[in-house]
Write the structure tokens for this entry.
Amino acid sequence: MMVSQDETEKGAWQPNQLAAARQQINQIDEQLVDLLTQRFEAVIQVNQAKQTAHIPVMDQGREDQVLDRVAQSDPNPATRAYMQDIFKTIMKNSRAYQAQLKKDDH
């Protein structure tokens, strides 16, 4: 079935648009993995500094600062809560990784 020009202008579903959007998401996901890899490398440094200073892994004040910064950085009020939820998960996994590093050191 051919889609007429009128249907396309009205926003009829276009399979090629879906494929293009998914390809864009795949590229962004690759960038996110690269950035998260860098973040986990920084977590190693944070963990070492915390162990040297005998500071606990959990720092609620710091996590609150991160969440505030994330909310302020997101230009879309509709996605701020979702963005903060993603960062809560990132920080939860960072804490778990720090705990694993600490366990592996002993």
Notes: Helices lie at 5-9, 15-53, 60-73, 80-105. The mean pLDDT is 91.
